[in-house]
């Protein structure tokens, strides 16, 4: 096996395209999973079981079926019902939805970890319920769960190649396309492997900096 | 200062004349599972009085404070504050009546995500609708009262327990409550920090007309500030009277036993 720098430089334009897609999927998927997971976690705390029950069933279902199946379902089945999105939009939504069922549990743990005395102090000060959530409980809960959420960002990054299954050309998609056309596998796959490590590492640095900022 | 000597404070004509009754619990029962913590308790406090609840742990003292703060609900009975019903009552009324009551907790319960200043201004701004400037001015006055003017912009975790508790006192006072509930406010403090907190409370007791309901194991403090001391046992008031009387010449055997154990 020989290493061909020429193949690397031929691959680079495709690599940058793939990198952009991967980063888009990661960033938007993270945002969706953080936001939606919080919504699920809050809905699971409403007193009405007519809310909790459906949310519980849906999120349990999503968490316990493979992301790949969900991608295929959203990409091939929804259009039959007249709902069509681009492959990347579908992929971002699927990843965000899938991971929101994990982040909801992270938020739940964070919310439960806020001492009951905080709720009692809020009651004693007569704070309205929404203000208690937004000013007292959530800031403390979210600060606690940043490291756990960060782990899911890394996990999500490693799941982005699945978008290839619905024709999205992420880094792996670009590498595979290039390999099949040029019959050169080592160089593109090595390049994207290194890229994954670098992105993971940078993301973890970013998260650690965020954690430090949030600690009092 | 008039001093109640009767088991039921509202029997004292001197009090009727002064400010009238502020808190009334009627036939209040509270159970936790099979354990009846309060058993058809009748209990009232006159406006402006400082009442200390003493008794062995589990005798229901703290439960009374928690019922008044609506942190827990009675199983039976009614609770009235300043002539308005707190329980049973619709949520909207509870919110209104609760404005008259403030509480200081054993574990301080300051909001760790807010500065000292915001801990104190948060509720006056969001609940009472005070302007931020007015709330901050008042907060600074209160911090001066509790001797913490240098710590306005710190977070609770940067303060000692005693300092945190003094901020908590300022935070409760910022809402201008008529009643201040003090739930074992020095129990979680290192011994050398207790005096500072008690001095602040003595000061408040002397200089304001706020009604105080205090659960404490600091008998000297209770003797200093109380108009009336109530001895609880098994969810009932077994003896009530002026601190001089209760601490030096208790009538009930149970009170004598308890005091000899804690003094």
From TrEMBL, chain A:
Sorted alphabetically, which keywords does the UniProt record give? Answer: Amino-acid transport, Cell membrane, Membrane, Transmembrane, Transmembrane helix, Transport
Entries under SUPFAM superfamilies matching the protein: MetI-like
Please report the stretch or stretches of sequence annotated as the ABC transmembrane type-1 domain: 19-207
GO CC annotations on file: ATP-binding cassette (ABC) transporter complex
Specify the protein's topology with respect to the membrane.
Multi-pass membrane protein
Q: Where in the cell is it found?
A: Cell membrane
GO molecular function annotations of the record: transmembrane transporter activity
- The source's superkingdom equals Bacteria
Chief site of localization: membrane
Question: InterPro entries, alphabetically?
Answer: AA_ABC_transptr_permease_3TM, ArtM/GltK/GlnP/TcyL/YhdX-like, Ectoine_EhuD, MetI-like, MetI-like_sf
Q: Where are the transmembrane segments?
A: 20-43, 81-99, 189-210
Its BP terms in the Gene Ontology are:
amino acid transport
PANTHER family referenced in this protein's UniProt entry, alphabetically: L-CYSTINE TRANSPORT SYSTEM PERMEASE PROTEIN TCYL (PTHR30614:SF0), MEMBRANE COMPONENT OF AMINO ACID ABC TRANSPORTER (PTHR30614)
Similarity comment: family membership: Belongs to the binding-protein-dependent transport system permease family.
Query: What is the protein named?
Result: Ectoine/hydroxyectoine ABC transporter permease subunit EhuD
What is the organism field in this record? Streptomyces cupreus
């Amino acid at each position: 096996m020989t290493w061909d720098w020429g193949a690397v430089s031929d691959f680079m334009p495709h690599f940058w395209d793939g990198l952009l897609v991967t980063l888009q999927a990661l960033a938007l998927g993270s945002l969706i999973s953080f936001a939606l997971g919080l919504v699920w976690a809050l809905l699971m705390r409403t007193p009405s079981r007519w809310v909790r029950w459906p949310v519980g069933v849906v999120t349990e279902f999503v968490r316990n079926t493979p992301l790949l199946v969900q991608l295929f379902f959203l990409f091939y089945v929804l259009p039959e019902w007249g709902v069509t999105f681009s492959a990347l939009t579908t992929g971002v939504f699927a990843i965000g939805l899938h991971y929101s069922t994990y982040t909801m549990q992270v938020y739940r743990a964070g919310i439960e970890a806020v001492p009951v005395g905080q709720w009692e102090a809020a009651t004693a000060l007569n704070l309205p319920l929404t203000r208690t959530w937004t000013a007292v409980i959530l800031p403390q809960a979210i600060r606690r769960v940043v490291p756990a959420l960060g782990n899911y960002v890394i996990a999500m990054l490693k799941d982005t190649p699945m978008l290839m299954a619905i024709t999205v050309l992420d880094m792996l998609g670009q590498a595979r396309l290039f390999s099949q056309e040029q019959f050169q596998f080592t160089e593109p796959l090595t390049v994207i492997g290194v890229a994954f490590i670098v992105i993971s590492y940078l993301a973890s640095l970013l998260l650690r900096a965020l954690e430090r900022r949030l600690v009092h | 200062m008039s001093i109640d000597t009767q088991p039921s404070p509202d029997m004292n004509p001197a009090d009727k004349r002064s400010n009238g009754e502020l808190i009334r619990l009627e036939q209040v029962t509270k159970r936790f599972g099979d354990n009846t913590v309060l058993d058809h308790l009748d209990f009232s406090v006159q406006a402006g009085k400082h009442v200390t609840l003493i008794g062995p742990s589990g005798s229901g003292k703290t439960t009374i404070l928690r019922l008044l703060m609506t942190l827990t609900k009675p199983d039976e009975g009614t609770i009235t504050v300043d002539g308005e019903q707190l329980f049973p009552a619709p949520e909207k009324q509870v919110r209104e009546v609760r404005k008259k009551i403030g509480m200081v907790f054993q574990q301080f319960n300051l909001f760790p995500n807010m500065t000292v200043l915001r801990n104190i201004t948060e509720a006056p701004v969001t609940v009472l609708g005070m302007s931020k400037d007015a709330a901050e001015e008042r907060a600074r006055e209160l911090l001066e009262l509790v001797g913490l003017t240098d710590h306005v912009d710190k977070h609770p975790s940067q303060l000692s327990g005693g300092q945190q508790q003094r901020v908590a006192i300022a935070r409760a006072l910022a809402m201008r409550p008529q009643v201040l509930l003090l739930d074992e406010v020095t129990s979680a403090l290192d011994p050398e920090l207790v005096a500072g907190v008690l001095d602040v409370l003595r000061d408040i007791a002397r200089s304001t007309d706020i009604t105080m309901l205090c659960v404490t194991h600091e008998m000297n403090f209770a003797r200093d500030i109380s108009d009336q001391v109530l001895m609880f046992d098994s969810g009932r008031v077994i003896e009530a009277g002026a601190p001089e009387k209760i601490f030096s010449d208790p009538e009930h055997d149970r009170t004598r036993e308890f005091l000899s154990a804690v003094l």
